[in-house]
Structure formats: structure tokens, C-alpha cells
Write a structure and sequence with these properties.
Helices cover 60% and strands 11% of the residues. It is an alpha/beta fold. The chain folds into two domains: 2-128, Rossmann fold, CATH 3.40.50.2300; 132-229. Helix 2 (34-43) runs parallel beside helix 3, helix 7 (143-165) packs antiparallel against helix 8 and helix 8 (170-184) runs antiparallel to helix 9. The longest helix is centred in the C-terminal third of the chain and has 23 residues, at 143-165. Pfam families: Response_reg. InterPro entries: Bact_response_regulator, CheY-like_superfamily, Sig_transdc_resp-reg_receiver. It comes from Inhella inkyongensis.
Length: 230
């Protein structure tokens, strides 16, 4: 699962990346400016699950990046955490109208930043995955049956990973994409909301083998989280 860290100061990026990596199995992507972050967001087929962005940056501030994201349908719900100085309180208040998920005040200790980040990550996971008990109640499933469905999906994902890895020509890649599109229909009913969105993006576009690998890797993590939560 990918998190984008945006800050024009390399040391600040490294400090925040260290906090994120201590919080779990997250892949961190860096941007040294708001412009670079915006370019990365638009170029990526698989969007990050969260953006952690400094407020004060030259060329494009964190607030400006947030405003651009909210004005674009593709990113209007993308969670943002703003990194601010203590005297940026008024700016933080004005950013609330754009749906900020949280903020971290610099200079920060790892413990304080981790506590704030954990709260936001918990909210992110709740948006990505339905609680297993809710899925089972909605589908009228016993835990063993729900687990069996997830394990079956896990095996199909493993086969897809191998299929994309071995797709040596355009025809083989097309076949793998078609299998991916078929599998997408079963994800949302199993409570894998973000996984369904990612598969839909891939089905509507033309994912490369690398795009598909990134998507499948994240979806496998979602399935693992659900299995652990049953």
C-alpha cells in the first residue's frame, strides 16, 4: 500500500518516511515539491492511499496541492495529512474545508507523529475495507465460509500475478487484463472496496505488467488484512 510524502526538505521527508515505515507494511513514494507530487498523482494508474504533505513549499504549497486534488474527480476523496509549523494554525483551520484527514506539527517527535498517523491510517483502512463482521452479516456468511471465499480469491490473485509476470507479448497481456476485469466483479461484495476501485481503474485503462503487479500486490495485502481480522 502506497503513501506519498511531499516536502521540499529532504531531512523532513526522511523523518516522516521513518515514521510511516514504523507503522506497517507501506511503500513510500517521495516528491520534493507540490508540482512534482501533482505530476506523480496524474501519471500513476494506482493512486496512493494517503498523501502526507508539507504546507510551506515554494512554487506550489501544500494547500494549493490539496485544492487541486479536491477539484479533480479522481482525487476528490484522497486522504491528506498536512505537515505544519506551530504558527500555521490559521492555515490548518482554512484547510479543514477541503477535507483534511489530519495534521502533524513540526518539529515532531516520532511518538507524536506516529500517534497522529495511526489515527489517520485507521480511518483509511475503514474506507478501504468493510469490517469482516459487516460483510458476513450482509452476505449471511459464517466465518469459515467467508474465510474460504477469501482464500479462493487469494489463490486467483497468485495466478494473476504469475500470468502478468509471464505475459511476453501483447496477446498474453490482453488475456491477463481480461481475467483481471472478470475478477473485479467479486471484490466489492467481499468488502474489498479499494481493491474493487483499483481493479476497475486497471480494467478501464491499459495497465502495464508493472502497474498490474503494483495493483495485485496491494489487493493481496487487503485480502491478508481481512483474513487476519476474521
Amino acid at each position: 500500500m502506497k503513501i506519498l510524502v511531499v516536502d521540499d526538505e529532504a531531512i523532513s521527508r526522511m523523518a516522516l518516511m521513518d515514521v510511516i515505515q514504523s507503522a506497517g507494511n507501506y511503500r513510500v513514494q517521495e516528491a520534493s515539491s507540490g508540482e512534482e507530487a501533482w505530476t506523480q498523482l496524474n501519471a500513476a494508474l494506482i493512486p496512493p492511499m494517503l498523501v502526507c504533505c508539507d504546507i510551506r513549499m515554494p512554487v506550489m504549497s501544500g494547500i494549493e496541492l490539496l485544492q487541486r486534488a479536491r477539484a479533480n474527480p479522481a482525487f476528490k476523496d484522497l486522504p491528506f495529512v498536512l505537515i505544519s509549523m506551530a504558527n500555521d494554525a490559521d492555515t490548518i483551520k482554512s484547510a479543514i474545508q477541503f477535507g483534511v484527514s489530519g495534521y502533524i506539527v513540526k518539529p515532531f517527535t516520532q511518538g507524536d507523529a506516529r500517534a497522529r498517523l495511526d489515527k489517520v491510517l485507521s480511518q483509511c483502512h475503514a474506507r478501504m475495507l468493510e469490517a469482516p463482521e459487516s460483510t458476513m452479516a450482509r452476505m449471511k456468511l459464517m466465518p469459515d465460509r467467508y474465510r474460504a471465499y477469501l482464500l479462493s480469491l487469494q489463490r486467483q490473485l497468485e495466478l494473476l500475478v504469475a500470468e502478468f509476470a509471464n505475459a511476453l507479448n501483447a496477446e498474453a497481456l490482453k488475456t491477463a487484463r481480461e481475467r483481471m476485469a472478470l475478477l473485479e466483479t467479486g471484490l466489492a461484495p467481499l468488502g474489498l472496496w479499494r481493491a474493487a476501485q483499483l481493479f476497475k481503474r486497471c480494467a478501464e485503462g491499459e495497465p502495464t505488467a508493472a502497474d498490474a503487479a503494483e495493483c495485485l500486490d496491494e489487493v493481496r495485502q487487503h485480502v491478508h488484512l481481512q483474513l487476519c481480522a476474521i
